Automatic annotation (TrEMBL):
NCBIfam families listed in its UniProt record: Por_Secre_tail
Keywords: Signal
Name assigned to this protein: T9SS type A sorting domain-containing protein
Organism: Marnyiella aurantia
Signal sequence range: 1-19
One Pfam family of this chain: Por_Secre_tail
Length: 326
């Protein structure tokens, strides 16, 4: 069974201060339309992406406002069905990591979509070679917007869903959010982080093989509508210590990115050697807002006083910088 691995045509191994970028994907270099012409997964499509599902039309690169996103469309009926998209090569990249970087971190943006009756579930999942163990991931059900973590327990129970908070995490409709998880390949410990939650759970120790974008329908009754899931800004890193939803100062320096003044009451000035494709602002719950940059400046005057994260979609991947609005 093949699956999804996001990487927008950019697969790199960049080492910075004990952190390595294994893979990034922002879809900007792909052409609007079908990801691949082969829904069996035997022949890769655009950017080396392979797909597996009922139809090539279920996997689309779309133009969304000022940038491009991946759209996966789920099932409209009761039959159990799945859709996966992947790119080969993660196992080799992981094997070539710097010694000591034994934690893999995966972060991505996704759109929660409108109010829906669809029972489709959407997310990303990390697997071992035999596809027998889930090494972390997320599933959101379209009708309830409940987000769960998915993993194989240390005792081998597979797959297991976990609530990400004291009560189920329910995401707001029609919002872009950024989520991430980290898997420690030495201990099996999994860390989940996203809007309003952060926590750890003991998982199974295993090899790392493949990462998938997933769209699945497990319901055999009651599902009468499909769901369109949107993804963007995937980042996969090998690190020595968990640093989810953040970019190290060393990485920002290497890319020639500076953000000032910080704190600010009105504008952020962004300087960068790398070309910036788009800008976003995330509140501390992970909700994404568009942020227009004009002449290197971002207007933040309308933001309430507080702490935020500036997200920069660059040619070299997604980076972020915390800032304070005063």
């Amino acid at each position: 069974m093949k699956k999804i691995l996001l990487s927008t045509a950019l697969i790199v191994v960049a080492t910075v201060a004990n952190s390595q970028t294994l893979m990034t994907e922002n879809f900007e270099t792909l052409t609007v339309g079908n990801v691949s012409a082969d829904a069996t997964g035997l022949t890769p499509g655009q950017g080396g992406w392979s797909i597996n599902g009922p139809s090539v039309a279920d996997f689309q690169i779309i133009s969304s406002g000022t940038d491009k996103d991946l759209q996966i469309t789920g099932a409209a009926g009761d039959a159990t069905s799945s859709r996966y998209m992947w790119k080969d090569g993660l196992a080799a990249l992981w094997a070539a990591r710097t010694p000591g970087n034994n934690i893999i971190q995966i972060e991505y943006d996704f759109f929660t979509g409108p109010t829906s009756t669809s029972k489709n579930t959407v997310g990303m999942e990390l697997y071992n070679t035999a596809y027998a163990k889930y090494l972390g991931g997320f599933r959101m059900r379209a009708d309830t917007k409940v987000l769960n973590g998915i993993y194989t327990t240390a005792a081998g129970i597979n797959p297991s869903l976990v609530n990400l908070g004291a009560t189920p995490v329910v995401l707001p409709a029609n919002q872009w959010v950024r989520v991430g998880w980290a898997y420690n390949s030495t201990t099996g410990l999994i860390t989940f982080k996203g809007p309003g939650f952060e926590g750890t759970i003991a998982g199974a120790v295993s090899d790392i093989y493949e990462l998938d974008f997933t769209m699945e329908n497990f319901e055999t009754t009651g599902n009468t509508s499909s769901f369109n899931a949107l993804f963007d800004n995937l980042a996969v890193r090998a690190v020595a210590a968990v640093n989810l939803l953040g970019t190290s100062e060393a990485t920002l320096k290497k890319m020639g990115i500076s953000v000032s003044p910080n704190p600010t009451a009105d504008y952020l000035r962004v300087d960068s050697k790398a070309r910036i494709l788009n800008t976003y602002i995330y509140d501390l719950s992970g909700i994404r807002m568009d942020a227009k940059m004009v002449d290197g400046k971002i207007d933040v005057r309308s933001l309430p006083v507080g702490n935020y994260i500036l997200g920069l979609k660059t040619e070299e991947g997604m980076v972020s910088k915390k800032f304070i609005k005063k």
